[in-house]
Structures are given as structure tokens and as C-alpha cells.
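During the second year of the project, the team shifted from modelling isolated chains to modelling whole assemblies. The rationale, set out in the original proposal, was that interfaces cannot be judged from single-chain predictions alone. As a representative example for this report, we include one of the complexes processed in the last quarter. Its constituent sequences, exactly as entered into the pipeline, are reproduced here:
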Amino acid sequence: MPYSARQVTKDFAGVTVLQDVSFACQEGQIHGLIGENGAGKSTLMKIMAGLYQPSAGQLLWGDDEVSFPTVHHATAKGVYLVPQEPSLLPDLTIAENLTIGRFSKHKISALGLDWQGIKEAARESLEKLGFTIDVTLPAGGLSIAAQQLVECARALMFDSKFILFDEPTSPLDAAEADMLSGKMRELRDSGHGIVLISHRLSEMFALCDDITVLRDGRTVGDRLRPPFRHDEVVKAMIGRELQEVDAALKRRRNTPDETLLRVTSLASPPAVRDVNFEVRAGEVVGFAGLIGSGRTESAESVVGLRPKTDGVIALTGAARMHKSAADAFDRGLVYVPEDRAKHGAFLDLSVRDNITVGVLHRLTSATHAWMISRRGEQQAARDGMSRTDVRCPSPETRLRSLSGGNQQKSLIARALLMKPRVLLLDEPTRGIDVGAKAVIHQITRDLAESGLGVVFISSELEELTQVSDRIVVFYEGRTVGVVERDGSHEWPLEQLGHLVIAGASPVQTQSESYPAPHPSQSVSEVDPCSGVQ
Amino acid sequence: MKILAPSARNALYSSVAVLSIVGLAACGNSASKSAGTSGGSSSAAGSIKVAMNVKITGHTFFTEIRDGALAAAPSQGVSLTYSGPTFSDGQAQATQLNSIIQQGYKVLLLSANSPTVEAPAAEKAQAMGIPVITFDADVIPAARGWYVNDAAYPAFGKCLIDQAVKFGGPNAEVGIVSSNPDSPNQIAWINSAMAYQKANYPGLKIDGTVYGKGDEALSFSGAESLLQAHPGIKVLLTPDSGAAPGAASAITKLGMIGKVLSVGQGDLASSRQYIKNGSEVSCMWDNAGLGKLLVYMAKAAANKTLPKNGTFTSDPAGSWVIKNGWVDYAQNPTVFNKENVGKFTDAGSPIG
Amino acid sequence: MLRRTVTKQESYLLIAIVIISLITVAVHPNFLKASNVTSILVSASIFGFIALGETFVILGRGIDLSVSATLGLSALVIGMTANQHHIPIVIGVIIGVVLGIVLGTVNGLLVIFGKVPPIIATLATLTVYGALEFVYTNGNQVNSMPNNFDNLGNASYLGIPVIVLIFLVAVAVCWYFAKYTQLGRDIYATGNDRQHAESRGIKTSKAIFSTYVISGLLAGIAGLLFISYYTTATAATGPGTSYELSAIAISLIGGTALTGGRANFVSVAIASVFLAMTLTVAVFFGVPGIWDPAAEGFLILAVVLGDAFLTSRSGRRSVVELKRIISKGDVAHLADNPAGER
Amino acid sequence: MLGSRLGKADVFRPLSASVKAFGGWEFALLVLLVVEIVAFSQGAYGFWLGGAGALTQLQQFVGIAVASMGLGLVILTGGIDLSIGSVASLTGVVMARLWASGLNIWVAVLIALVVACAIGTLNGLIITYGKLHPLIVTLVTMFVVSSVAEVVVGTPTPYVFPSNFVNLGMGAYHSLPWSVMVFVVVAICAGYLVGFTTFGRELLMIGSNPVAAAYAGIRVRRVLVINYTLCALSAGIAGILMSALYASARGDLAQHLLLPALTAVVLGGVDIFGGSGRVRGMVLGVLLIGFLQQGMMLYGVNAVDVQLVTGILLGAAVVTKNMSGSQRFTRRLRRRRTNVPPPVPNELEASKVAS
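Output from the structure prediction step:
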């Protein structure tokens, strides 16, 4: 029987984030949920999973009303939410992570917890997903993909009828995302109802049986059914066309200027083994590769956030090599980290603080007793905000209250204020909505136009092909090739794909690179742990 | 999450906080009246306000002195306020003294945690015309007018060694359990004992010293380890009211009664049981009497009739010799042992 | 990795204990005399008791500074009541337990409902409970205990002091509770990552709250053992000699992670023996008592550094294992999707 | 929010924002302080005396006041320093010994302060490079240093210092005690550092999110090491002032310095988890607690009840603060419970530990 929300409204301290939203999921179907950040997707999921209580409206199980005061009420009924960031407890074993919070139900023998039983149950549920691993290992060591599999396994353990995925694939690389999609298909075929939130439209289109679009806390139109049309969906999401953005992206530059950054045989084991690339003025260099292929780590060691054991980092105009990140930033070699919440943002501080942190020392002077010039700082903040079009009421707004896209823009603004010559953007569009994504692509291009050298790291080849002039491919800590557009300005996608996946171009790997694909097989062969860093 | 308008919340903050603190101050205040540690006796009009401040409140040694003093106070027209820090902490005590001397007391009775830390406050008191009489633990001479020494050092040292020899013989091995390495009267007593020992019983052998910080439990563990480390020890010198019973209980626990003896300065309240079971002999004095004497001296000092040198006579208390403000309270400390312990009150005064 | 590391912790502590005692015995033959070992074990048991409680709190990512005052208060109350009207041990136990639970509950309330950071909350209660000791004693102290308590302090069964036996039972119970009960695992999970534990449907507030109650409870019983063994207590007992720091020290030496989620009660028990022994050894070698704190300090440092080292190593090991498990053949599943996306 | 730490900066901030920050709390502290001073001036003899009395009261707890400034700096970064008490004691003892050995008193003071700084630097280095939790490291330092202090002091403990040194503790310039002037200077320096300089801003950033601070190019290690050094320095100054006030040096002189200082800092509205707090609040907090204790003592309230009230006040204050609408604490709790990113050597590691 279907599980549905009817005319659900939710407001936090007066701010309405959901308005009369109705949403139903059927067993044996994958129901997509799309919308810009802040559209209320996650809120809706959390309400349906019992994390939040609706301010108005009901949840219906079949035809009779249900209410889930807590998560476990929902879990008990058979609704399970796989959060965007897998919430495994790092020091606990995989087995315990799978069974925790459920001891009371089973696994309790006369002598308390029955560890043997717990291990067995854990192993079984993982094997159902064709995932074999020693369940006594600490979950902390698992890659994000693997952790998400464990989450699915939990869902199965609780014999959940409905499994809600909140952006499961955004932290995954293509291969892993694909593996997960396969799992979802299997789950659907075995009669589970699945709700999927994702920003990767192509993925959604491939997976979903129908799609509901949310905008500003309301459902837009009726639920869409295949065949889905890209432009139609995007229009529904952001309420405008993306034409102008696309136009901007079409522009291409083929006349790169002198080399700004040359990195040769960079090594920082274990993640980075032998990395070579160069960045020229006025071009966007894409970094492609699976998660764990060493893209991020390379970028970090290039700017000095990681100690490198070997290699030369030659920045034009710099006499000697920089000693620390601060040093590198001063010389115009600036890095915008991958994980916004953990590595980038000071969420509890103001937008101004976040933007000006890199240039404070330029705002002080001996004549003013090394005090930070307030006017200068305000100026800098506003300047930065305007350059990346950060939308917020005031520079004093707390960063936490901004949307993901605006947070990311603030961080890029921070980098721009440092007057970079080479800018390394690591997954700048992860987990942000289509609109903001387009703006960031635009900014990236403009920066290149203005003569900067930009490095653009992303797991989405699609977006890399859109913004990059050249793409450097990483594989197991090595740069395995540089791909450029061919004469007709088209990308040799096949070659690119194989470089990314196999670390070699199809020419040599022809034979083994085309095994008869079979979904289940392909799935079982996926390495869930390739992300271990 | 805005529940209240900023201004309203602002007001809420302050009001709640104000109420809480005012209320607290009040309750603390009323409590002080009831709490026995302040122990002020009814102050008759025109009575002499005397402050007694000790190393640490909540130790029977001082409580006995306090009670003795409180008993004598009314008859002398003295209103006595008893106070002291909650940890034996020189700095805390000095801070207290600094406020005490501003509360219009006529005389200050002081047992100092440290000879120096309390000195400035005591000096200030004298500068303000408040006579300072120290007892039990002295401060530097400049900072006080009179010092009532519990027991004459030579006599006390002699008492310790004599008892030690009496039990263990002239060649016994001896261990020392003291309170703190830098507490003046401990040093003085131990030195005097050593001097007497070198002169008369050079055979005695000192095996080691441990410190119990005046805490019975700590002294217990210290003494225990000391006895384990030096099985030859026959006598533990314990010139501290925490160390004496502590060591004695260690001896008792280790079943060494009769083999080892704790010879020290233990007030009967905590030592009686061990003196009874023969694990301790105590060179002590009448604590209550000490309290009384302090009250009489305080009255005299307030009336400017207390001499720096000469004899101070006060019929109920008897007469004492004062040299440069130094008074030895117990000329010859009483030896409390199995036999006589029954005849004394906990405060050390003879029964009947 | 966790389990592996901590068991290492235990074995290393045991090795250290053996080595140190061997050296000491070589110099002072009577170090291993029954009476000495006994006294070491007994004091280890009494402080181990509050260390166990402290470990629960730290396990839940908190800290409890008030244990020493709780011990002191319970010791005083039991002592005074016992002396005024001769009560059976049972009553003493009840007093200790009830008092401990009440005081622990106050901590729990402050932390959970008052949202006061643990270190601040328990600092406040340490101050208050410490003051209450004085108010309660009113300047008097406990000097002796009636025989029934005295006997509890000295009695031994099969040559093992009853106090030690009680401690062993307590360790066993703690170990079982932490490993085999719902609440115990909840505490581990909560200390590991409260947010995620919460999303697991674990009542993290309940878990944290319980750690403070347990800590108080154990401190209360420790007070009973303290008073029956030392048969003396003053208003300064506990805070006056900073037992709370010893408790934290023991817990850390036992390999408890200050960041929560990792603790092993057996090794905490061993650690308490280790510390007690070291301090006795110091006396045997005539080291002045003023060096004791320094010794404690260095022990903690050594253990924490060693633990960090071990953790990192076993951490690597587990990753290696994961790599081993990895199945080959990334190519296949991309075949139908060469460009990664679309 | 941070703008609220920039004095004038409040001008361009919406009022609500500044109130949401600490305005409300500090306002409450101020009201309390006034109420308290007025109340005690009525009740307690010698408390006010036309201001002079109050200054003398301040003189009594100036050691705590100075030490709390440094402690506050460390807590702003989400760290803590348990060793300030023993460091203060050691500073006094070293100074006394050096002086007893015939050195000029002020030279001795300087050397002693250098020793204090050295300990602080050591703390910082172990915490950042050893990647250990500040609580553990400084607990160890506390233990070790207190032993060392007891050893250094030896017997007999030196006293009788030159009068001009003792004056530093007890003397006054036209009823303005010298030690209070020192406190004012220290407080101003702290306020300047935190509120106006890049260093101060970096402290708050590290406290807010140490990993992000490292990624933003802040030299986390350097900042932290300097910070712990400053903390130890202020503890050292406190130790000197106390030795001067009590004209004596003892290994345990400042053994109970930590708790009141910590109380004052927290009362002053500094987030124990770091990332927010103002020197302004810290000063208010220390004055509040100090005058409360002094006043009660003058009022004849005995030590036990003073202790009671202080403890209850600390608890009540923080509860009030958390109850009054501010969700920062719980949110921060949430942040700190999220998984730490995969270990990255050097700066990042150090920064993580510092939290």
C-alpha cells in the first residue's frame, strides 16, 4: 500500500518551508524529488521519516492516517531515510552500526546482547546487496559509497517498505553512483518503494518512474512521468530558462597564454604518487578522476596543505617554492576546498568574516597600530559579494543561514579577494542546485577570460566538459593523460571515460574494456571501498 | 530561532540573572547565620569583637580550640567569630584576613597556613591598631604581637623522643610522618626532636620521611608504604594531628600493634581509639584550655594590658611567661597513653 | 580497530606493572609481601571505583569533576550516621547509593536540561557539594567507625580483601553493562557521535544523563568503601585532595579517549592498580612525595602518546584490510556509460 | 556576529544582530555588577569608601582577573589551559629564588616571566605537533609544574621582598593600586588583540572551525602556540602580582587559581567550545564574581557560603544563558559531533586537535 503525505505544511519559527505539499510513493517504484536547494525536499523527507513533525497536514499509510513522533516509529512502520551524509558511527563495527538502536527488538538473549547473532544478521543483510565485507571492522574506514551501502543494508534489516534517499550520489564518483543506482533498481524490483533526491538530472531521468518538482516549498505542476524532458524539468525547478548561461558556456578559447603553474612529478603518498600538469593563463583545466584518484589530495599538496615528499611546483614569477598554504595564497595560488561545511565555511560567523579572512593582513597597517580597517573590510566584503553575486540581506548575515549555492559563492569570493593568478576549485558545484551551478560555471569561465588560470575539479564529467578547455585525468594518484577537444571542438568522450575508469585509453585496453555488461554483475564487481583515503 | 523580540529577550536575560544572584546572595547570607562554621556567639552590647581565623575549618583540632574559646568568651565579655578557608590554602586565608580586618574587630586570633602568605594582612591589621595573636602556626614575628606556641619546642621534641625510646629502645629505627615539608611548627618540632635525639640517643636511626598534608587518609597511605619499605621501623614520629591517627590506623591495619608505635601529636577526638588499642602514644595538651587562654589574652590585648615581656596572669587560666610576645602554652605536653587516656575529654582537658 | 587498540592498552599496562614490580622487588625484596600488595590493591580499588564512574562520563563525551565531592559527602554522611545510631552496613550502602544517585542526577539535569557544558556544570557542582560537606559536618569530623563498618574495611575472603572483591565485581558489572546492554551500547554510540546516534533512534540525552547518574552512584559507593577502610573523613575529604583529578588521570591512563566513544573498563581497573603501585614504589625508592603529581602527569602523557600511536597504526591496518577486500574490475559497469554521466 | 566584537563596527550592523550576539548577556552582567556594588556598598563596611574601597577589593582578586584574560584567549580557540594555577605558582617561586640568590628583583621577575612563557610555548607545541587534546596536555603540565614548583621553592621559603616590589601588590598611586593598573593594561591588550587585530580574528576563526581555518590559510599551529604562550604569560603575571600581594612565594600559592578564573571567563559569555566571546564580557565576568566574593566576605558571610553561592551562581548563570533563546550552544554541539574528515598531516591535523 502507498505511503503518502497529504497537504503537509511545515514552518520553523514562523518561516514556512513547506506549503500544502502532497507527495505519494508506491511500493515497487522509484519516485524522484527535484528542486533547488531550499525548495524543501529534505524537509519533506525528514517529515516522512519522522525526524520532523508536520505543522499541518497528515501522513497516510494506505488510507489510514499515521504519525511518527520519532525516527524509530517510522523505522518500525517500515520507512527508512538514507541521509545525504551517511551517519555511521566511525569507532563502532559495521555489524553494530547495522543493528544499533534495534537491540531491544531482537538480538537480546538471556545474557544481554547476542553478538554472534548481531554479526550474522549484519552479514546477511549486506550479502542481500551482494556486498561482502568483514562486519567486525570499524565503519570509520569505509568509503562514502560503502557507507551508503551499509545504510541500505540497515534499511533492509529493518525490513523497510519505503527507503528514502536524500542526494545519495552527490558525494560519489560516476562509477559508484552507477553502482548505487543499480542497487536502487534491484530494491525496486524486489518490491520496495524508493524516493530519490538528486541534483544529477541525467541520473534521475534514468532511474525514476515518476518525478515530483518542488519550488519554494510548493509542488510545481503534477508529477512528471517518463519520458522526462530536461528543459521542462529545469524550467519547473527554477522557473526560468537556462539559455543565457548555456550561451556563455558555448564560448570557447583556444589561445591560452603563457604557463602560470607547472607541477612536475608531485608525490605525497599514499594518495598522490606521480602528478604532472600545467595551467596556462586564461584557460580552465578540468581535473577528472574517481574519488580516491588523488585529485583533491594533489590540489591540497600543490598549495601546501599536505606535505609533499617529491616534485616541483613552479609558479611563474615566484622565485622560490611556497612553504605553506598561507604562503601560496599570498603568491596568488589559491585553493577552494571540496567539503564546504567541514573545510571551507565558518558557518557560525558572518558572511563578511568568511569573505575577508584571506585578506585581513592586507587591511591592517602599522600606522593604525595593526588594527583591521573596518571601512576597508566592509569595502572588501561588499566587493567580494558583488563579484560572485552572493545573495544575502547583509554582510553581517550568518553564513549558516545562506543557501548552499550562496555559501559556495562566498567561499569563491574569499578566494578572489586574495587576487589569485591560479585558482583551484574543488567540486565547487557539489550538492548545489542547477541555478547556482550555472552561475558558478559562468564565474569560472569569466575568471578564465580575465586571464586567470583556473583548475576545476569535479566528479561529473558532464560539467567538466562544459567548463573546461583541457581535462587532466587522475587515476590512483597519477595523472594518466590530458584530454583536449578535437578539431570539431568535440570531446573524445569515450577515451576520456576509459582514462577515468581504467587509467588507460581504450586503444590498449580495448579487449578487456568491453566485457558483456550485465547489471547485476557490474554491480557486484563494483569496489565499494575504492574511496578509502 | 527568534522566540522573543531581541529587546524583550534582553530584558529577560538581565531580570532572571539579577533575581537569581540577589536571591543567592540573600540565601548565602541567611545561611551564614545558621551555619555553625561561622559560630559567632551572642554579642552583648559593648562586648569585645574578636576574630579567630584558622588554617582550615572542619578539623577537630581547631574545632576543639574554637569550642574552648566560645565557652570562655561570654564570661570575658568577648564576642568571638570563628572562620577559616575550606582548603588549607594560604592564599585563600590571606584573602579572608584582608576582609576580616576591615570589619571592625578589636583583636585577631590567627593560625596561619604559611608563615609568610598571611603576614602582610596581619601587618596591615596591626597598622590598623588591631592586636594580632597567632597560635599553633606562627607568622613571621614582625607580623604579630604575640604567639601562643602549642608546646615548648624542646619539651615537645623531648617528649617525642623519650616516648620513642621508651617503646623501641635507644637503637630503634624511626620513620617520620609529617604534614608539609614547609610548615614551620612541624619543622621546629622535628628539629628539636632531632637535636635532643643526637644529644641523648645517637643510636636512633631515621629511615625516611613522608608527608600527609595533614590529611588522615593521605598520612595513612604514606605511613603504610613507609612501613612496607622499611620493615625494620619500630617507631613513627607523627607530630601532626592528621599524621598521628593516620599512622596509627596504618599500624592497626597492618596488624603491627605492639611491634610499631605512632608517637605524635594527635588530638584525642581522632586519636583516642588508637591510643586505646596501643598503636599510638600522643604528646598533647588541653586544646580547650588553649582556646580559653586565647580569649583571656585577646581581652587583655584589647585593653592594652597584655605585656610583650613578663608574665600574664588570668586567674581562671593561670599564669604564663611571655618572652618577646612568645608564649609556650604547654610547658610539658601531657603524654596520653593506654593507661590515662580514659581520664581526659576529647579536647584533652582532664575529666572532673 | 578500537577493540584491538584497547586490548593492547591492557597488555602494555600489565607488562609495565610486571616490569616495575620486578625492578622494585630486586631492590626491596619485601615489595611483593602480601600485606603490601593488599594495601596497594585496596587503595587502587577505592580510587578505581570513582575512575569507573568517570570513565562512563568521558565515554559519553563529558567529564565529571564533582566525583571527589560526592565521595566525600557520602563518606561523611555514612560515617556520621553510623556513629550516631549504629546502623547495619546495608543502610550505609543505601545511603551511599541514594546520595550518589541524587548528586549525579543534579549533574545530569544541568548538562541535559540546562544545556550547561559538562566541565562547567560539574565544576559548579564540585564547588557546591564541596561546600555542603562543610555545612553538613559543621566543623566536626569522622574519626572512627563502628565495628561492622570497620570489619568491612578490613575483612578479606580467601585472602582477598572484601573491598577488592567488591571492586572486581563492579568492574565486571561495568564491563558487562557497557558491552551487553542496550543502554551501554547507546552510551558508546552517543559518545562516538551524538548527532548520528540520535538519528539512529538512540535516546542520546537518556544515555548521557545515565552516565552522570552512574558516575554519582559509583562515587557514592566509593564513599562507603573509603569510610569503612580509612574510618576517617573531614569536610575536606575529596576535593581537598583533588581525588577528581586522580579519577580522570586513572581513566586516561586506562586508555579512555577524552573525545568519547572509546573506553575499556578492564584496562581502567588495571590502570588504577598501576597508578597506586607507582606511587608506592616512589616511597620505596625514597622519592619525595612532592614528585607524585609529576609522576601522574608523565604516566598520562606516556599512555596518551602511546595510544595515539597505536590507534594510528591499527587505523592503517583496518584500511589495508578494506583494500584487500576490494573486488577488481572497475571497467565493466561503466561500459554502458562511457562518459560517466548521461 | 563577529562584527559585534569590533566595537564601532556595531554601527553598520542591525541592532537585533548585536543583541543576538552578546549584547543581552553583557548588559545583564553590567546590571548585576551595579546592583551588586550598590548593595554591598550599603551593607558591607569598607566595601565602597568612595570608590577607594572597591579598588582595594579589586586588588584582592587581581591575580584571578589577570589570569582569566589569558585563559579567555585560549578558550576562544576552543582549547583550555588547566595549568595556569601551577604556572602562576612556579613563576612566583622562580622569581623569589632568583631574587634570594642575589639577583635584582625586577630582573628576577623578567626571567620568571620568560620561564612561564616557555611552559606555555611547550603546551602549545605539544598540543599542535603532538596532536593531543589541550585538556590532557595541560592536565599533565599542571601536575608536573606543581611538583617542580614545590621542589624549586625549597625551605625556608623566601619572603621579605624589596618594598618597591611589595608595593606592586599592595601599594597604590593616589588610591589607584599598582596591581589594578597592571590588570587594566593586560585587559586592554587582550581587548585590542581579540577585537581589533588579525591575530584575534584568527583566534575566533580557529575556535569556530579549526579545519576551515587551516584551509583558509591561517597558520593554525603558529597562532595556537603563540596563544598558549600568551595564556601562560598572563598566568605568570598573575603569579608575580600574587607574590607581591602576599609578599611571599609558595609552590601552592596559586593552586586554586584555575576554577575562579574559568568561572569568570564562562560567566563573561565566552563559549567554552570556542569561536565566540569578548574581552569586554570576560572583564565584566571577573569583576562580578570577584566583587561578589569580596563583598560577601566583608558582609561576614563565611567561606563555605561564599563557595556555595559562587557555585550556584556559575550553574544558574550558564543555564540562564542557554535558556534565553540562544541556540548557538546546541548547534555547535551538533557541529562538533559530525565526523572529522579523513586525517591530513600537518596544519589540518593540528587545527582539528585544537578544537
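The mean pLDDT of chain A is 80. Residues 359 and 418 of chain A are 6 Å apart (CA to CA).
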